């Protein structure tokens, strides 16, 4: 038919009374489909690269700056951070009392000495004790004040022979766990793990560290020192340097006189500055009291940008979102939006730790957006 009219279904927006251009709808659909196809093809290319045995995953300096890495706050400010740590000292020196003290304070959230503590569930594997001895020790130290989220076990499997599954199940049943203490490391070394080579020691700690990092918790491994003295006190750790090399840090408890009631606690780690604490044993409770510290904790200088953001959120609204350009205008600062975003990405952990502000950065199709949220409670983070 010469007068035949080609009919097409109109593209109508929800709630609209007028028809929109069919050509416009078609163009939009084609564009969206093309973007989806490109995204899928890109994902396939990345997957093929990762499956190639010769593939080495890298990240450029620009990509590092453009990525937000959410840090986890310390369990004990300035003293104990998420990660895997050795806690070493000579036998019968008071390490187990110190472990009970740390476990109790973290499970209750009570300050330890002059350090702020974040509350969380604790699992203490007291593998050289029995429940009767634990009961007597805890009663002497803390009286009848119990803690419902502090759990003990006096028996456990070994690495590669039950321990991995036991710890995983505990984490599944207690997702708010922040600290696991293994007292002692020797008790959980896998069968045949008495080969004290650097490679063997490094592998043991690496396996435990992988578990701790996967859950973002702190893992304390109680261990002994060797009898020989050393210029570097951390060289006194029993075994090879592979233990300390794979760990995130170490605590070393020492007494000048074995019969005395004073001791020093030396601290060294990747996420904290080296410290030396002077302790004294309470004669009644046998808990450790802090007498003084030799090292004053270093504090980062104030960052004006973070202070301006904190002032913005404290002015009434607990949340702000927008583009980096809009943020520059609101804060009245002269900085390139791209540089501002990177500065915020790098300081995301500090913004959370010092100001309780959670920072997010995302990119839409055409622009980047940033968002700040004031967090009131941080115990569950």
Overview of this protein structure:
There is one protein chain. With 381 residues, this protein is of the alpha/beta class. The protein has 3 domains: 17-57; 83-293, P-loop containing nucleotide triphosphate hydrolases (Rossmann fold, 3-Layer(aba) Sandwich), CATH 3.40.50; 300-374, Arc Repressor Mutant, subunit A (Orthogonal Bundle), CATH 1.10.10. It is 36% helix and 20% strand. It is built from 12 helices and 12 strands. The protein has helices spanning 22-51, 61-65, 95-108, 131-142, 163-173, 185-188, 198-215, 242-246, 304-314, 324-331, 337-346, 348-355; strands at residues 83-89, 121-126, 150-153, 177-183, 218-224, 249-254, 262-269, 275-281, 288-293, 319-322, 357-363, 368-374. The strands form 2 sheets. A 9-stranded mixed β-sheet has the order 3-2-4-5-1-6-7-8-9. Mean pLDDT is 85; it is low at 1-22.
CATH classification, class level of the largest domain? Alpha Beta
Strand order of the largest sheet: 3-2-4-5-1-6-7-8-9
Largest sheet: 9 strands, mixed
Please tally the helical runs, counting DSSP H or I stretches of 4 or more residues: 12
Shape descriptor: globular
Order of helices and strands: HHEHEHEHEHHEHEEEEHEHHHEE
Q: Stretches where pLDDT falls below 50 for ≥5 residues?
A: 1-22
Distance between the termini: 72 Å
Mean pLDDT: 85
Please compute the radius of gyration using only Cα atoms: 28 Å
CATH topology of the largest domain: Rossmann fold
The strand count comes to 12
Task: Summarize the amount of helix as a percent range.
Answer: 25-40%
